[in-house]
Give the backbone structure.
Amino acid sequence: MHKILVTGGCGYIGSHTAVDLLENGYDVVVVDNLANADADILERIAKITGRKPIFYPTDLRDKEALERVFQAHPDIAGIIHFAAFKMVGESVENPLEYFDNNIVGLLNLLFCMRDYRVGSLIFSSSCTVYGNTTALPVTEQTPLQDAASPYGYTKQVGERMIADLLVACPEMKAILLRYFNPAGAHESAIIGEDARVKAQNLVPVITETAIGKRSSFQVFGDDYATRDGSCIRDYIHIMDLARAHTLALEYQLNGRQPEQLDAFNLGIGQGVTVLEAIQAFERVTGLTLNYQTGPRRAGDVEAIYANYSKAHNLLGWEPKRSIDDIMRTAWAWEKARTEQKSL
C-alpha cells in the first residue's frame, strides 16, 4: 500500500482526490496551512471513505516544518502537489503574494523531494499555462503563450522548475496535469467547494446566489467573439478530475511512464459559455438566477477547452459527468453546507 503526500489536501481539489486515493487503497498524508480551507474536511473524508488522512497543518514556505513531515514518513512513495493560491482576479490584484506562496512553496517541496529521495510527483497545473491561445481545442502540443495573469505565470514557472530539477535528477519522474475548470461536488454532498476566501469561480458564485448568500452576480464581458458574447470554458466535474490524479499516479508508480516528464490535459473536451453554464443550472434546478453583465475582467482569456485524448489513451481516463451533473451536485452541496452552518 503506497503512502502519498497530498499538499493542499484540505482544499477543494485536494480533498476530493484524497477520497479517490483512499478508496483505491492508498495511505494519504495531507499537508495544508489552512489558509483557504478548514481541518474539519478530514472528518468528512473519513465519513465517506472510512479512513482519515494523517494531517500536518504546515505551510510549504516553512522548509524546516516541511522537512519534519518527510522525516516522519520516509516511506512516502509519491507526491501530489495542489497547495497554491488559485484565483485569477486576486492574482492580478496581489501578484507578489501569489509569487511568494505558489513559487516558494513549490521550491521547498522540490528541495524535500530531492533530498529525501521521493521519485514521483504529480503537479497540479492549469490550462492557464497556454495563455490566450487561438488554437482550439488545446492539446499538449499547443505552444504556451504569455500567461494572462500572475496565477497562470506561477503555473508556467512551476512547470519549468520541475523540468529543470528532473534534468539534474534523472531518477525522478513527474506528470503535469493541466486541467481546465473544476466544478461540482461529491455525490454524497458531504464535501464540495468551501473556500474560506470569497469564491470567484463561476459555479459556487451561481449556487451562493441561488441560495441567497449573494443578491446577484456579474458576468464579466458580453462582447467576446463567442456564440453569445461570454467567455468559453471547459468545466470538469471534480470527481472526474480526482480520478485522473489517481490514474496518473498509478501510471507513474507502476512503471508505465516512459518519459521522465509528461503532461496531460484534463477537461471534458467541450466549451461551455458562461451564459450556457447559467442556463444549465436553471435547467437542472428550476430556479432563476439574478445576474448582470458587465465589463471584462483582467486576466481572463476569451475561450479555452481541452482535447483530452492523450489522457484517455495513456491513462485510461475519460470524464463521465456533464455540465448538468456539475450543477446538480454543486447545488446539493450548497444546500447541505448552508444547512450545516445554520445549525
Residues 95-115 form the longest helix (21 residues). The two ends are 39 Å apart (CA to CA). The chain has a mean pLDDT of 94.
